């Protein structure tokens, strides 16, 4: 019988691509040059085949989702990222908001008795919401519902908070951990390379600062995610550079759980003249990330931004996790023109969506402990009692 590599050769596939396929099938790491070749020459079908091979080797058909809810403390922000559709300089401008601690606690209380396992807290960088304010918020949430995993603050928010408090990263993180923070979301990474970062996010924390915060968090035993905002003015080489910096850090710390490519949306921001990437390019992005980031256990599609059908499609291109926000109050994407203007999906819908493409829905907690294995189509589901539900 012919090997997959021989099949590719016989089909007349470019020899650089065949060489890369050979590495993938031998479970060998691809290098930066290979990754660039995949971006430049790899067809959707080709990169999809390799990514799906890796996905199924790692996870079979399992597709994780998580029941969480978002709190956005404010959209007031001292920074001025060109792609951002959401930040306002002042809360008193028409659509600016800033929430008090009791208002945010009321949001948490509105989920009392509901089977959510995580709260995701991310917002703009408000000049008056400081470390003390957020410590109080986190400790009150933790005291109210100790089983709820608190995933909070991008490296951008943390950098600003700690600098204002005149604390080192480690000191600042320790204070938040003591209050009850348990992991970090992956936002604020955008594109690390200074050629692009200077143009789209000039005034916030740079690549080294972002990576240092995640490195320190990992050393303190926290897990985190990593994102990349793609499909605007960056080149393929900038994407490779971004993923290389993440892969290098992950080699050292093993602290990243998930990589989340974020598709640039062009409504209501200073980059509205930049066209959005096509669905084919989105799927190629997922697939190539799955192939290159061999040390990242999970690849996530954020469905409120991508839309239900594209998220479903991504499960054939390396993705093994769909962000499972049940009642998404996040405005960052709806304001940027995402597919989902009202992103809510019941667990039943999410399970059906995953089963429809012959994958196996599994509810997880933040750290990928299984809560409920729903099984594939026609299989019985196996609920597992998890303490984080209380
Ligand atoms: O850092 C802002 C992005 C991010 C736009 O860790 C935009 O589980 C597209 O990081 N078009 C914040 N994207 C959201 C984020 C996130 C989301 C879901 C899950 C997790 C996780 C993290 O949103 C920002 C920025 O990269 N963003 N504006 C826009 N116009
Ligand atoms: Fe502020 Fe974040 Fe928007 Fe940048 S992306 S302007 S840091 S809210």
Model description:
With 390 residues, the chain is of the alpha/beta class. The protein has two domains: 1-29, no CATH class; 62-389, Aldolase class I (TIM Barrel). The protein is 41% helix and 13% strand. The strands form three sheets. A five-stranded parallel sheet has the order 5-6-7-8-9. It has a four-stranded mixed sheet with strand order 1-10-11-12, covered by helices on one side. It has a three-stranded parallel sheet with strand order 2-3-4, with helices on one face. Helix 11 (236-253) links the parallel strand 6 and strand 7 (256-263). Helix 4 (44-59) packs across helix 12 (279-292) and helix 5 (101-109) runs parallel beside helix 6. The longest helix is centred in the middle third of the chain and has 18 residues, at 236-253. The radius of gyration is 21 Å and the shape is globular. The model has no long low-confidence stretch (mean pLDDT 91). Iron/sulfur cluster (SF4) is lined by residues 77, 79-81, 84, 86-87, 124-125, 156, 204. Ligand V47 is lined by residues 83-85, 122, 154, 185-188, 190, 225, 227, 229, 260, 262, 264-265, 269, 302, 323, 332, 336.
Regarding CATH, which class of the largest domain?
Answer: Alpha Beta
* Number of DSSP strand runs: 12
The assigned CATH architecture of the largest domain is Alpha-Beta Barrel
CATH superfamily of the largest domain: Aldolase class I
Overall 3D geometry? globular
Which sheet architecture does the biggest sheet show? 5 strands, parallel
Q: What is the CATH topology of the largest domain?
A: TIM Barrel
SS content category: alpha/beta
DSSP helix count?
15
The amount of helix comes to 40-55%
């Amino acid at each position: 019988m012919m090997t997959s590599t021989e099949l590719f050769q016989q089909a007349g596939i470019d020899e650089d691509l065949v060489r890369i396929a050979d590495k993938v099938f031998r479970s060998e790491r691809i290098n930066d040059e290979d990754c660039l070749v995949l971006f430049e020459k790899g067809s959707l079908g080709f990169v999809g085949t390799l990514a799906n091979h890796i996905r199924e080797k790692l996870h079979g058909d399992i597709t994780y989702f998580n029941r969480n809810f978002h709190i956005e403390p404010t959209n007031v922000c001292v920074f001025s990222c060109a792609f951002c559709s959401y930040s306002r300089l002042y809360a008193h401008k028409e659509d600016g908001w800033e929430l008090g601690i009791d208002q945010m606690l009321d949001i948490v209380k509105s989920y009392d008795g509901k089977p959510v396992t995580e709260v995701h807290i991310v917002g703009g960088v408000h000049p008056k919401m400081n470390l003390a304010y957020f410590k109080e918020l986190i400790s009150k949430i933790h005291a109210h519902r100790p089983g709820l995993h608190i995933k909070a603050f991008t490296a951008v928010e943390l950098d600003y908070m700690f600098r204002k408090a005149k604390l080192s990263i480690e000191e600042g993180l320790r204070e938040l951990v003591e209050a009850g923070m348990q992991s970090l979301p992956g936002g604020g990474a955008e594109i690390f390379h200074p050629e692009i970062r200077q143009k789209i996010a000039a005034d916030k924390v740079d690549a080294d600062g972002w990576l240092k915060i995640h490195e320190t968090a990992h050393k303190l035993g926290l897990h985190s995610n990593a994102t990349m905002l793609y499909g605007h003015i960056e080149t393929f080489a900038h994407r490779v550079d971004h993923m290389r910096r993440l892969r290098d850090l992950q080699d050292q710390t093993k602290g990243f759980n998930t990589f989340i490519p974020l598709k640039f949306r062009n409504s209501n921001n200073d980059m509205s003249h930049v066209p959005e990437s096509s669905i084919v390019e989105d799927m190629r992005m997922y697939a190539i990330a799955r192939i290159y980031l061999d040390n990242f256990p999970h690849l996530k599609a954020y469905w409120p931004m991508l839309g239900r059908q594209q998220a479903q499609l991504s499960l054939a291109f390396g993705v093994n996790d769909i962000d499972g926000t049940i009642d998404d109050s996040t405005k960052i994407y709806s304001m940027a023109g995402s597919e989902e203007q009202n992103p809510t999906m019941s667990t039943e819908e999410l399970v059906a969506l995953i089963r429809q493409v012959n994958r196996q829905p599994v509810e997880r907690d933040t750290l990928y402990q299984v809560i409920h294995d729903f099984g594939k189509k026609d299989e019985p589901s196996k609920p597992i009692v998890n303490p984080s539900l209380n």
